[in-house]
Structures are given as structure tokens and as C-alpha cells.
Amino acid sequence: MPKVGMEPIRRQQLIKATMAAIDEVGLADATVMRIARHAGVSAGIISHYFGGKDGLLEATMRQILWDLGEAVAARRRELTTRNPRDHLGAIIDGNFDGSQVTGPVAKTWLAFWASSMHEPELARLQQVNDRRLYANLCHQFRRLMPRDEARACARALAALIDGLWLRGALTREGLDSDEARRLARDYLERLLDTRDTSSPS
């Protein structure tokens, strides 16, 4: 009989093992047996908790997405102002949080993006993530400008965040999160400054 409270611990153990296996050999070769070895458990445990590799990958991405949401929320909670510029900066910083840029997490993100083109449930998770980023950005931009402009700025900044993340993750050195944040914040200031100078006085 399993010990009380072991399920959450075991699930986290298996999620970390999944990321480690993907980091080591890629998604295709991250077999249930390899993941189980990383976790120090039997392969049957994975089937018991997740129903197999697909369920485990979904759970792993849900955890990474939750971590991302928390990274953004934590930065916004630290703010002492409601200034939209500050909240947009916090959203940028959260998207390049350390929890999202390590080797195992970065490679799991890349595997997730590739798999989401073929797996409906992963595609749904990707859409949820995209909508969350866009909605958060759009809400803050809307406090500074008309709706159509806010939507355009939100789309542009979201695309830049994703692009910086993807290009950085694909480099041999890995993502330089400080540089990515700086570039994204510079672009944000250009968006806002351009609008300020073009607005009628």
C-alpha cells in the first residue's frame, strides 16, 4: 500500500526525470524505460500515474506552464505601482525566468512545441499559453492606448518574446536570459516611445 502523500512526490520525481531524459537524448529517444531509470522507479509506475509517455509529457508541460505563470505573477506581486510599463516589464522578466531557461526545461519546451503540431492535447496547452501571454500584454497596453493599437503591440511583443526565447534556446551556449530581457524591454520602450511622439499634443 503506497504511503500517504507519496503521489505528489512521485509525480514530481517523474516529471523531473522526463525533463532530464529529454535533455539527454531528445523526446523521441526518451523512452518510458529511460525515464523510469532516471527516476529510479519501475516503468509500471509511469503507466500507473500517467497512463504512458504521452500523459507524462502532458503533465510535464502543465508543470512548466504553471511555473511560468507563477514566475510572471511573482514579479507582478512585487511591484508597488499599477503603472502599466512596470507590469509589462514584469511580464517580460517572468517569461525569461530561470525556471524556463535551464537546459532540461528549454529542451522540453522545444519538444513540446514540435509535438503540439501533432498532438491535440498538447496543441490545446500551447494555445492556452499563447492566449495567456497575449491577454496579459494586451490588458496592460490597453491601459495606455486604444484597443486596436494595444492588440497590435501585444502581438508584436509576444512574437519578440517567443522569438528571443527560441533563438536563444537553439544556440549552443543556451539562452542568455539577461540579454533577452534587455532586448525585449528596449523594444517595449520603443513601442511606447514611438506612440508617445506620434500622439497629438
Radius of gyration: 19 Å
Q: What gap, in angstroms, lies between the N and C termini?
A: 73 Å
Instruction: Supply the helix-strand structural class.
Output: mainly alpha
Shape: elongated
The first-level CATH class is given as Mainly Alpha
| Quaternary form | single chain
Number of helices: 10
Succession of helices and strands: HHHHHHHHHH
CATH superfamily: Tetracycline Repressor, domain 2
CATH architectural name: Orthogonal Bundle
Q: Tally the beta strands.
A: 0
**How many domains in all?**
1
- Biggest sheet, open or closed, and with what strands and sense? none
Share in β-strands: under 5%
Which regions are unreliable across 5 or more consecutive residues at pLDDT < 50?
1-5
Write the CATH fold name.
Tetracycline Repressor, domain 2
State the helical fraction: over 70%
**What is the average of the pLDDT values?**
90
Overview of the molecule:
Residues 31-50 bind DNA. This is HTH-type transcriptional regulator BetI. Keywords: DNA-binding, Repressor, Transcription, Transcription regulation. It comes from Halomonas lysinitropha. Pfam families: TetR_C_6, TetR_N. There is one protein chain. By secondary structure, the protein is mainly alpha-helical. The chain has one domain: Orthogonal Bundle (Tetracycline Repressor, domain 2). The protein has ten helices and no strands. The longest helix is centred in the first third of the chain and has 26 residues, at 53-78. The protein is elongated. The model is unreliable at 1-5 (pLDDT under 50).
